[in-house]
Amino acid sequence: MMTLNYNNPDLSTEERVSSLLSLMSLEEKIGQLCQSPMLEYDSKKQEYLSQVRSGLVGSRILADTAWAGNAPGETVDPEQINEIQRVAVEQSRLGIPVIFARDVIYGQSTVLPIPLAQSCSWNASLVTDAYRDVALEASSLGINWTFAPMMDVVRDPRWGRVIESFGEDPLLNGAMAAAVVKGFQGDDLASPGSLVSCAKHFVGYGASESGCDYDTTEISENTLANVYLPPFKAAINAGVKTFMSGFNDLGGTPVTSSKDLINGWLKKDHGFDGFVVSDWGSISDLHHFRVARDEVHAAAMALDAGVDMAMTSEAYQDHLHTALEAGLVTIQQIDDAVSRVLTVKFEAGLFEHPYVDAEKAQLCQRAPEHTNRAKELAQQSMVLLKNRDNLLPLVQNETKVAVVGPHAHTQRQHLGSWCLDGKSDDVVSIYQGIKDLIGEQNVLTEYSALTDEWVESAHRADVVVLCVGESHRSSGEARNIAELKLPSGQEEAIEAIANTGKPFVVVQCGGRPMPSQAISRHADAHLMAWQCGTETGAAVADLLFGRACPSGKLTMTFPKSTGQIPIYYNKKPLGKMRDFADYRGYKDVDRAPLYPFGYGLSYAKFRYSDVELMSVADGKVKIGFTLSNLSPIKATEICQLYFSRAYSSCTRPEKELIGFERVDIEACSSRHVEFEVDIDGLGYFETIADYVNPKSAVTFLVGPNSDDLLPLECTSSQLYQTEVN
Ligand code: NOJ
């Protein structure tokens, strides 16, 4: 039989894959399933290149530890990437290109806000555009594949990796994850400006016990199906090409060995046709979890579960051969995994354009349209939490502003912990941003770390911008905290500024919702600025001085105290709620959060009214309402729609987000706004496989946040008939 030329781009991907597969030796096949970090590349170069020449390296990860974000050592060097690729393409027997991977989580040279902050923009299309820019910058350097987005639903802000998540709501998490996938992969994955995206960490990793990283997860099937899996479904629908299996043990089965979840839910039930990579070392971890007898057994378990590629190589390189000989895996399983990897390589256009133009790469880094978009996203990501007596926006030129505090001049901090390539020097500090906007003559500052020097500046100013918050070293992978509190000394510093009697704004930086008694008690205004990337200072300045109007809203509940965790808006009703609601809480702190999910202020005041059922037809329900802007400024309001079922066959949350929209509204005007909801979307999973939607009366709830909502009652006959009576 004549073998087709797999290098011919006119053939279908399927034909190219099967032709190539038919020519491969077992070693070459296993090689495609291995991702090597190539540690100490320079000193071990010949050894690595000889492995590449022998077809043993399917992928290279540009990272040197499992927690690459914490100590980025490995850099991206397009010349080095070309050097390795040339050996793969021109000197290996079959010329299969290597796929180069790096954690481009939220930025390359232009660094966006951390994902938790981005989600507060509730602006999926802006997120897509911003990630398109990131994809251009990263791919131009030779990166083909990135390990993002992370869509782990999070309910515990002690966990350091909440920075990488889009928050506590499954719907919003899925919408943002899909937006990132679209940005990275673009309309044409084969175009040189696109990156292969990876949905992670499949699944449940966000529920790590006690907020400790890598910890056990215990999630009921019902919660897994309704809360943790839906964002991954959204990523599949968005066309994501790869998945990463998490580090976690989920109810007795480490996910990396879960046949039910990977081969079952993901590949069989949801038709995912890309490939699955393990997390760093999570295949060997099966041995350490003591569910695999040895490393060979671990490799067999992972492949059998559906993990196609091993990050890092040794798990498959050293053991898959033996597993095959021992009959623990079959050649068909290996072939299936190899076909999946090759399919993505063909689809990503690696065979057509394996190399990068190292000189051209520099031209697109930090292009003005990228930094402008990053600034816009930063502005929309920051959340105004408090604004007593409308202290903000500050009046430019009439005010002397003291910009002080531990974060007044920081730069590296705003890049957050999962940023491998952004440069501190490119970050606009908060002081710099304010100075650039209002002129040096209007700003006072202190470079000193001494609180009494800040106090002295405050005395000499009309208003103080006090920049506080945790450092980037307190969040990210393997960086959890037991107590949600500002770093030592900051509560006192806030009190000291308050004692000057000067009006003051607290700008809080950090990677998680973090309450502060002093901010709550004393600050006149409070802007949650998160870690918003290279354009942070410019965005803060625009918001404080009214060049931009705050619109961001929280996607993770802000607790009052650590003891309230887990705290999230979509709680379930309790049987005892009828008479005993008062006994439910704590004696020492009330149960309400400091700020609820969806909360955030604007400089405009909005009013919601006239919520009405517009129509029910073709499986959709339309809900309308009037949004009024009572202020003399144009603004944007993130309108939210929740629903609550009167009856379900299993317990369901008191309310669930089902729609949201950023609505631009002119000064002193009103607008009619409509939400259209699929009636099918009012259902839920009873078990992983059973989605049901029993007829029930439903209350729709419209408003500015999860705690301030106008109800619209719909009977089940209204909803489940074709016409409104
Ligand atoms: C471990 C992390 O869990 C994962 O998110 C990351 O992509 C890999 N390390 C690679 O750096």
From TrEMBL:
UniProt cross-references to Pfam families, sorted A to Z: Fn3-like (PF14310), Glyco_hydro_3 (PF00933), Glyco_hydro_3_C (PF01915)
Keyword set includes Hydrolase: yes
Q: Which UniProt keywords apply?
A: Glycosidase, Hydrolase, Signal
Q: What is its EC number?
A: 3.2.1.21
Any idea where the Fibronectin type III-like domain is? 637-706
- What SMART domains would the database entry show? Fn3_like (SM01217)
Reactions that this protein is recorded to catalyse: Hydrolysis of terminal, non-reducing beta-D-glucosyl residues with release of beta-D-glucose
The record's GO molecular-function terms, alphabetically, read: beta-glucosidase activity
The Gene Ontology biological process terms listed for this entry are: glucan catabolic process
Under PANTHER family, the record lists: LYSOSOMAL BETA GLUCOSIDASE (PTHR30620:SF16), PERIPLASMIC BETA-GLUCOSIDASE-RELATED (PTHR30620)
The text of the family note is: Belongs to the glycosyl hydrolase 3 family.
- The name of this protein is beta-glucosidase
**Organism from which the protein derives:** Vibrio chaetopteri
